Amino acid sequence: MPVISLVERIDALLPQTQCGQCSHAGCRPYAEALAEGRDPINRCPPGGEDGIRALAELLGQPAIPFDPAGPQPKPRALAVIREDSCIGCTLCIQACPVDAIVGAAKQMHTVIADECTGCELCLAPCPVDCIDLVPVADPADGERERVMARAALARKRYDARQARKDRDAADKAKRLAERAAVAAPASSTAPAASQAPTAAASAADKNELIRKAMERAKQQAPVAATASADKMAVIRAAMERAAAMKAAQQEADKDKE
Ligand code: SF4
Ligand code: SF4
Ligand code: SF4
C-alpha cells in the first residue's frame, strides 16, 4: 500500500490555484511549510474557513481565524479578456498556472471560463490592462465540495503544464548540446594525424561535449529569465508611453475644438 506523506495529505486539502497569497510559490510549498510547522494554517484565502478547519483537523491544531493583516477570503472571480484591446503579447498565457488561456502570438486571447481558478496571476503582466475579473454569481460556488472539485481539475492542469515546461526545457538543452557538439570538432585546430580516435573514444568525447553544453544551457536559464523580465519592462514602458501620447493627443484635440 502506498505511504502518503504528510505533505501530500496537506496538499490534497489546498485549492491548487497556485495564487501565492500564502506567500509561497504555490500550494505544494505551503503544504511543505505546514508539514514542517513553519507556517500557521490560516494563510490560504481561496480555501476559506472550511480550508482552515480541514487543515486544523488533519494537523491536530485548533482552527484559527484569518490574520486580519493578511489577505482575506473573497468570492471567486473569473478572468475575462477584453478581446478588442488584446495585443496578443502572450504574457498572460505564460503567467497562467493552469493553462486556462488560449491564443497565439499577435492574436486575440481568450480565457476558458471552466478552467480559470480566479488566481489573478494574469492581471499584472498584461501590458494593456485588458483583463477584467468578473465575480462568480453562484452562491454555492464557495462550498467545500465545489472548491475541492475545482482543486482536482486545477491540480491536473498544473501538473500537465509543469511536465510540458520540463519537457520543453530538456528539449532545448538537448538541442543546444547537440549544436555545440557538432560545432566543437569543426573549430578544433589539432593536426589530422592526431585526430584518429577510436569510435569509443569519439563517442565518449561527444558525450562529454553534450554534458558540458547541457551545463552551459542550465547556467544560461537564469539569464534568459532576466531577459524575459527585461522584455516585460520594455513592453510595459512602451505601452505607458503610448497611453501618455494618446492622452496628450486627446487633450490637443479638445483644445482645437
Ligand atoms: S491556493 Fe492557497 S495554498 Fe495555494 S498558493 Fe494560493 S494561498 Fe497558497
Ligand atoms: S486565466 Fe488568469 S485568473 Fe484564470 S487561472 Fe489563468 S492566470 Fe488565473
Ligand atoms: S497579456 Fe493582455 S494583451 Fe497580452 S495576450 Fe494576454 S490579454 Fe492580450
Describe what this molecule looks like in 3D:
With 257 residues, the chain is mainly alpha-helical. Among the domains are: 54 residues, Electron transport complex subunit B, putative Fe-S cluster (3-methyladenine DNA Glycosylase II, Chain A, domain 3, Orthogonal Bundle), CATH 1.10.15.40; 53 residues. The chain is 52% helix and 5% strand. It contains six helices and four strands. The strands form two sheets. It has a two-stranded antiparallel ribbon. Strands 2-3 form a two-stranded antiparallel ribbon. α5 crosses α6. The N and C termini lie far apart (79 Å). The relative contact order is 0.09. About 6% of the residues have low confidence. Bound molecules: iron/sulfur cluster (SF4) (3 copies). One iron/sulfur cluster binds next to α2. The site of one iron/sulfur cluster has 14 residues, from loops.
